[in-house]
Design a protein that fits this description.
By secondary structure, the protein is mostly helical. Among the domains are: about 15-35 and about 185-275; about 50-180. Helices cover about 75% and strands about 0% of the residues. It is built from 11 helices and no strands. It has helices at about 15-45, 50-105, 110-125, 130-180, 180-200, 205-285, 290-300, 315, 350-365, 370-375, 390-434. Helix 2 (about 50-105) packs antiparallel against helix 5 (about 180-200) and helix 7 runs antiparallel to helix 11. One of its GO terms (molecular function) is mRNA binding. InterPro entries: Bfr1 (IPR039604). This is Nuclear segregation protein BFR1. One of its GO terms (cellular component) is endoplasmic reticulum.
C-alpha cells in the first residue's frame, strides 16, 4: 500500500470583520443623515403660511377653477359658433361664384334689364320700319334674352340665399359677442391679482421651503448611495464566501476520493493477502492435521513407535493431541474412568508383576482426555480396556496409510479449489472497481 498521501489543503475562510466594520460606519452615516433630515422636516413644518392666508388662497383658487371651467365652456361654445359662421361663409362664397359664372358673359345685371331690352326689341319689330335682316336679328336676340332671363331667375334665387346667409352670419356673430361677458373676465383678473399678491408676500417662505426640500432630496440621494455601498459590500463578501464554500466542497471531494482510493487499495491488499493465505493453506498437504494426530496417538499407545523422519507434517500444523504437552480439557464418555496416568509402558517386567498389573489395568483402565478427543475426531473406537489397545493401534496405522495414499490427490484438489475462489474474488473486485 502506498504511504504517500496528499497533505490536507488549508482553505482560509473569508474574513468578514472589515466588511462588518465598514457597514457599521455606513449605518452610522445613515443615522446622521436621518437626524439631519428630521431637522429639515421640522424646519419645513415651521415654515408655513398662517391659516387665514391659506384659507383665503384656497378659496380664491377654488373660484379660479370655477371661472376657468366656465371660460372653457364659453370657449367651446364660441368655437362651435365660429365653426358655423365659417361654414355659412364658405357656402356664401360658392353661391357668389355661381352668380359670377352665370352673369360674367353678359352686360345685364338683372332680370329687369333683360325685360327692358326685350320690350324695346318688340317695339322696334312692331313699328314695321325694320328691314327683314334686322328684324330677323332682333328676333334671334330676343330668343337669347328670354333664355338668359331663365338663368337670371336662378341668380335671383342664389342672391336671396346669399342675403339670408349674411343675415345668419350677423346673428351668429352677435351670439359670440354675448358669450363670456366682461364680468367673468374681470373677476378672473381680480382673483389672479389677489393670488399674485399672496404669492409675492409668501415668496420668502416658499424660497426657504424650496431650499430645504432640495437639501432633503440631496440627503435622500446620499442615503441611497450609502445603502448601495452596504449592498455592494454584502454582495462582494457573498461572492467570496460562495467561492470559499466551492473550494471547501472541492477539497472535500478530493479528500473523499483519496480516502476511497485508499480504502480500495487496502481492500485489494486484503484480497491479495486472503488469496495468498488461501493458496498457502491449500498448498499444505492434505490430512496433515489428521496424520500428525495419528502419529501422536501411535506414540501414546506404543511408546516404542517412532515418527518417520521424512514426515514434515508436525512442522506444518499442530494436532489436537500432543503425547507429552497437550493439556486440552474435554468431556469424557460415561463408562471411562479418568485418572492421572503414570508414565509406564503397556507391557512391563515379569509375568507375576505383569499379571498383577494387568489385573489392575483391567480394573482401572484409563485414557488421557486429549486421547479420547483425538480418537473421536478420527472416528476410531476408544479402547475401554488394555486388550483393545492392539486393535486401536492397527486401526490407527490403517487409517494413516489410507490418508497418506489420498494426500497428494486431495492436496491438488484443495489447490484448484483455492485458485477458483481467488479467481472469483478477483472477478468481484473488478466488478466493484468498474
Amino acid at each position: 500500500m502506498s504511504n504517500v498521501t496528499r497533505g490536507k489543503k488549508f482553505i482560509k475562510r473569508p474574513d468578514d470583520t472589515p466588511m462588518k466594520k465598514e457597514i457599521e460606519n455606513l449605518k452610522s452615516d445613515i443615522k446622521n443623515l436621518d437626524s439631519t433630515a428630521a431637522e429639515i422636516n421640522a424646519s419645513l413644518d415651521r415654515l408655513k403660511l398662517d391659516s387665514a392666508t391659506v384659507e383665503k388662497r384656497k378659496a380664491l383658487q377654488g373660484e379660479m377653477k370655477e371661472i376657468i371651467a366656465k371660460q372653457s365652456a364659453f370657449k367651446t361654445e364660441r368655437s362651435a359658433i365660429q365653426s358655423q359662421i365659417k361654414n355659412v361663409e364658405e357656402q356664401m362664397k360658392r353661391k357668389i361664384a355661381e352668380i359670377q359664372r352665370l352673369t360674367g358673359k353678359t352686360s345685364f345685371r338683372s332680370v329687369a334689364e333683360i325685360d327692358a331690352r326685350v320690350k324695346s326689341l318688340e317695339d322696334l319689330i312692331g313699328s314695321g320700319d325694320l328691314k327683314l335682316a334686322e328684324e330677323r336679328r332682333y328676333v334671334k336676340e330676343m330668343t337669347s334674352l328670354r333664355k338668359l332671363r331663365k338663368d337670371f331667375a336662378e341668380v335671383d334665387a342664389q342672391q336671396s340665399s346669399i342675403d339670408n346667409d349674411k343675415k345668419k352670419i350677423t346673428e351668429l356673430k352677435e351670439q359670440v359677442g354675448k358669450i363670456g361677458n366682461r364680468e367673468i373676465q374681470s373677476r378672473f383678473e381680480t382673483i389672479q391679482k389677489e393670488l399674485d399678491e399672496i404669492n409675492t408676500s409668501s415668496k420668502s417662505i416658499y424660497d426657504q421651503r424650496s431650499q430645504l426640500m432640495d437639501k432633503r432630496s440631496e440627503l435622500r440621494k446620499l442615503k441611497d448611495s450609502k445603502y448601495d455601498q452596504i449592498r455592494k459590500l454584502k454582495s462582494d463578501f457573498d461572492v467570496e464566501f460562495t467561492k470559499f464554500k466551492e473550494q471547501l466542497s472541492e477539497e472535500k471531494k478530493k479528500r473523499d476520493a483519496e480516502w476511497k482510493a485508499k480504502q480500495e487499495e487496502e481492500k485489494q491488499i486484503k484480497r491479495k493477502e486472503e488469496a495468498q493465505k488461501k493458496l498457502e493453506e491449500a498448498s499444505v498437504p492434505a490430512f496433515a492435521s489428521e496424520i500428525n494426530e495419528i502419529h501422536g496417538l501411535l506414540s501414546y499407545f506404543d511408546p516404542s513407535y517412532k515418527k518417520p523422519q521424512k514426515s514434515i507434517l508436525a512442522n506444518v500444523t499442530n494436532s489436537s493431541f500432543d503425547a507429552k504437552t497437550n493439556i486440552r480439557k474435554v468431556e469424557m464418555p460415561e463408562d471411562v474412568v479418568v485418572l492421572k496416568k503414570e508414565q509406564q509402558s503397556f507391557y512391563e517386567g515379569s509375568a507375576t508383576k505383569k499379571s498383577k498389573k494387568k489385573n489392575t489395568r483391567s480394573k482401572n483402565f484409563t485414557v488421557e482426555p486429549d486421547v479420547i478427543v483425538s480418537l473421536s475426531n478420527l472416528a476410531i473406537p476408544l479402547p475401554v480396556k488394555s486388550e483393545d489397545v492392539v486393535k486401536t493401534i492397527e486401526t490407527l496405522k490403517s487409517t494413516l496409510r489410507a490418508l497418506e495414499e489420498k494426500q497428494d490427490e486431495q492436496t491438488q484438489k484443495n489447490i484448484e479449489k483455492a485458485k477458483e475462489e481467488i479467481a472469483k474474488l478477483n472477478e468481484e473486485a473488478n466488478v466493484e472497481g468498474a
